[in-house]
Amino acid sequence: MDNLQLIQSKIYEIRGQKVMLDRDLAELYQVETRVLNQAVKRNVERFPEDFMFQLTITEWENMSSQFVMTSWNKRPKSALPFAFTEHGVVMLSSVLRSDIAIQTSVLITRAFVAMRQLLLNPPVDRVALLQQEMKELKEYLEEVFTDYNDINDDTRMQLELINQTLAELQVKERDFKERKRIGYRLPGSEDNQK
Questions:
Q1: Which of 47, 154, 53, 30 is nearest to 90 (CA)?
Q2: What is the mean pLDDT of residues 4-13?
Q3: Whether the model pTM is above 0.85
Q4: What's the rounded Cα separation, in Å, for the pair 51 and 43?
């Protein structure tokens, strides 16, 4: 995985394309830059413009001003670097014809694919996702408590009605006990003695 990250750090965007420069590729293929460029020039028909192009002086000056390493700046201005697209990198392995070139091409192709996947499927922002979930949970809890308070108010009203009904029933029961009974009385009952 470290190899992929190293390779990805050497992929630049120039002219709207993801490319690698000849010097970086030579380093990865473990050959000199001039050897790589000679192999390309001997097989130039394999490298159309969508596979490889040479940087302009302005592009090279803009890029070399971004590099801290002095070895990049030592390159003669007349020797402008070549930039290879993903397809050009794959073609390089057939031109260089070495085991290292084949293995390196596989790694570089994987690096390009990984970068493309990253662009197509950016990583999920976990913090934003958690914030959204917390917001939804908070809204849900507020709804639940609102419903709970509504139920609570309804329950209080029902309890008050029950208490009021019980109080009314108790008053009616007292009134009922204090009245004299009407109807048939059994002989020897208390009512007969009065």
A1: 47
A2: 81
A3: no
A4: 12
